[in-house]
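Example S7 (structure tokens).
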């Protein structure tokens, strides 16, 4: 009887030991269950995306003053109308995942910063450069895939003029303290044509053509597309709020 009791204690100890240290269930997380999102094919928006341009109209956009944009819509694409100014999304965003496709003109005109220049401004302030950077040398932190005048792309995976190119971006907005000072900087991870060009890059501040970036507190902001005087086109623009 004493032996049986001893054996039971040993088995009990072994079982407890297993449950506390070696049970694979101990590290399983079941709640919350991630919601189901139906992915799109070939860059098409997933089921929970906010579609900002589906090839048909500019209803989700305005000019910088809030008036209807004069950019042209044809053949499923949106094209800069030179001199009409930047356009901005009517909806304002914080952290987002962005998908946007762009094409610089097939007819090559100009060079350096004057060839197919446009840009995507997150929260109206931080530019991810759009440029024809195919055999078109300019300053590295001004070519396609750069955070303009801040961080060059890791590599140059651009396609030639007239070809559609794809950005997939994770944008994390900067956070500010109540006194307006920076709490945590914004960050950008960007893939250009499926190739990583910005790897969780810290945003230094506002995009400035001349001088250093500035840190100025702000709330949510629009996505802005730049009129730099070149007829660059966009299509299939969607975001997911993070
Ligand atoms: Mg630009």
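Recovered sequence:
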């Amino acid at each position: 009887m004493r032996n049986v009791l001893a054996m039971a204690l040993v088995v009990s100890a072994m079982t407890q030991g297993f449950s506390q240290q070696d049970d694979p269930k101990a590290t399983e997380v079941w709640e919350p269950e991630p919601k189901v999102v139906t992915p799109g094919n070939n860059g098409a928006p997933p089921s929970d995306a906010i579609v900002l341009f589906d090839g048909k109209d500019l209803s989700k956009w305005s000019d910088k003053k809030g008036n209807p944009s004069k950019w042209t819509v044809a053949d499923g694409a949106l094209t800069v109308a030179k001199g009409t100014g930047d356009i901005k999304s009517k909806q304002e965003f914080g952290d987002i995942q962005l998908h946007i496709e762009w094409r610089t003109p097939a007819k090559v005109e100009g060079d350096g910063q004057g060839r197919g220049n446009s840009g995507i401004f997150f929260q109206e302030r931080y530019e991810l450069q759009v440029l024809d950077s195919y055999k078109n040398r300019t300053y590295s932190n001004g070519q396609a895939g750069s955070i303009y005048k801040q961080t060059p792309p890791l590599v140059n995976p651009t396609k030639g003029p007239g070809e559609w190119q794809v950005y997939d971006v994770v944008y994390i907005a900067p956070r500010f303290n109540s006194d307006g000072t920076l709490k945590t900087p914004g960050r950008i991870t960007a893939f250009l044509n499926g190739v990583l060009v910005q790897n969780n890059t810290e945003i230094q501040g506002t995009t400035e053509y001349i001088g250093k970036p500035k840190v100025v507190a702000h709330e949510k902001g629009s996505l802005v597309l730049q009129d730099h005087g070149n007829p660059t086109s966009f299509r299939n623009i969607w975001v997911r709020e993070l």
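Notes on this example. The pocket of magnesium ion is lined by residues 117-119, 127, 129-130, 226, 228 (CB under 6 Å).
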